[in-house]
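Record 1 of the preview.
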Amino acid sequence: MRKGFFLRLAVNGIRKNRKVYYPYILTAIVTTAMMYIIGTLQGNPDVGNDTLSFALQLGVIVTSLFSVIFLFYTNSFLIKRRKKEFGLYNILGMEKKHLGRVVLWETVIILVISLALGFALGMLLDKALLLLLARIVGRQLAIGFYISRGAMTYTAALISGTFALIFLNSVRQVYTANPIELLRSGEVGEREPKTKWIIAILGLLTLGTGYWLSATIRDAATMIIMFFFAVILVIIGTYFLFTAGSIALLKTLRKRKRFYYKPSHFISVSGMIYRMKQNAVGLSNVCILSTMVLVMVFSTVALWFNMEDIVNKRVSGDIEFVSKDLDIDAFYETVDETLSEMGLTRENDMAFRYYAFTAFQTRDTFHAASEADDDNLFITPIMLYLVPLEDYNRMYGLSETLSPGEILLDAYRSDYTYETLSLLGETLSIKSRTRGRLSNHAVFTSAYDTLFLIMDNQQSIDRLIRRNTEVYGYKDDAMRCSVSFTIDGTAEQEIAFSDALYDRLKQRFSITYLNSREALRISMRQLYGSLLFGGIFLACLFLMAMILIIYYKQISEGYDDRERYRIMRKVGLSRREIKHSISSQILIVFFLPLAVAGLHIVFAFPGINTMFRGLGMDNVSLMGACALASFAVFGVIYGAVYLLTAKVYYRIVSE
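->
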């Protein structure tokens, strides 16, 4: 054959099949650009080596895995459309090794275009996204242009390796199929699928279990662990229900004569039954990607807008310090010396002692952690804090009194309804209750449910401490002391004072915790800002994947349905009736994943809310508003994709 023949054949194949190849090439370009951008941001020296860098590293891992899977998945649509053409070439005398060369040239052409234009697009957008990230997290960056060779090398290796695997998989399919199979590849899946009730029931069970876990677990620490399993169950259930449940539903509709024996319903339902087996995976992917986009967007946006409230809950004053066996007089002497040197003053002092340990609850009885047996391993622990009444009254200006054996109970994220409380063999009577008064101290921030026991005096606490240390088997009998106050300086002075105070205090005391409101605000802004940026970045990546899957699904169905509708026109069906049937079919199939994704969000919301309570976010109304707004915006985008792809589908079947 003449030199360059296979190259020209590959170029002509891409051009003639531009409806499927051009979107694929565009997707490969954007995927390369996003892979380069996230890698460059992670390696940028201006980002530093902290929470932001760690979040970007996770972004690199997720983007890498997704890029490989997504490019593999979308390539399957291309091969399906080209198999018939390859079968024709094979029958006309072209050997399979020649077909392999055509596939090789196509792969090389797409790879070169993807890398060249992807890196160009990535370099154009990199600085803009870096400035956006810096603005979100509140950092000042130097003006300049940074190109990461490491990101380029990694991206080129990842994309090239993916295309190499795609080429090998494509060649395998061509070599293992005979010409007749290639020619008839477009007709695969035309037999009516059987109703698989066992799989449908399993889908309902797994989906229901995932929903149940998310809706019933109320402990933040447990939910953080179990939410992953709930997600896996929901994904499995989604695939099972779309694969088997959708067929069962369509066959049920077919049995309803009043519904089925109408032109639009008859054509759409019968057509979907025959194709649902091969389309179920695509619909499941669209549903899962839609859910992932919605969860990432509304959760990160909610955290971002609630950040200031979380900061206020985590720190009761501008400065908060915790230490064992703290000498209050010596502590304030060091504080006042540092304040005097910086020209600052303090006010709103609050100091209290406490003892903390973990326990397991069985009705009104609390067991020490070391007493846990095999049954306790599946019980969520509760944090218990013992506070002297003297300190409690002084902090809040109260004059409460307690008799021996009586306590005041301050419950945070715990609905303790019993009138007595048994702890370490001692039964305590609850005189009165409050809710959340002590929980606004950073030292008490915990992912677990928390109970604060205000004891009548220090001797009662010491007695319980001795019993607790005996149970644990090691000596941990030191009371902690927490001190907080406000200062009259600026944010910069507050951070400078906190750093200077820490350097002095660590020479005299055993520091358990020291933080300033402004330092915490900066830390939270970096954490939640990086989560917001990463959530939006990955949401855009998943949204692109969802749009492409929908587009290819519409094209594949269009080519599969074209001959069917052509026959229907010949037997007398009008174009209006055909168009109405097409609209009915597309609406049912197209918006089913969106409806199921909305259902997933409804049941995922309680679990996400429970996990966020562990971060100090209790603003359910804000989360709900963010979820509704995200779904509304996503619904508009989804509808726009529907209008565009429906036109493509109708043009194909009308040819």
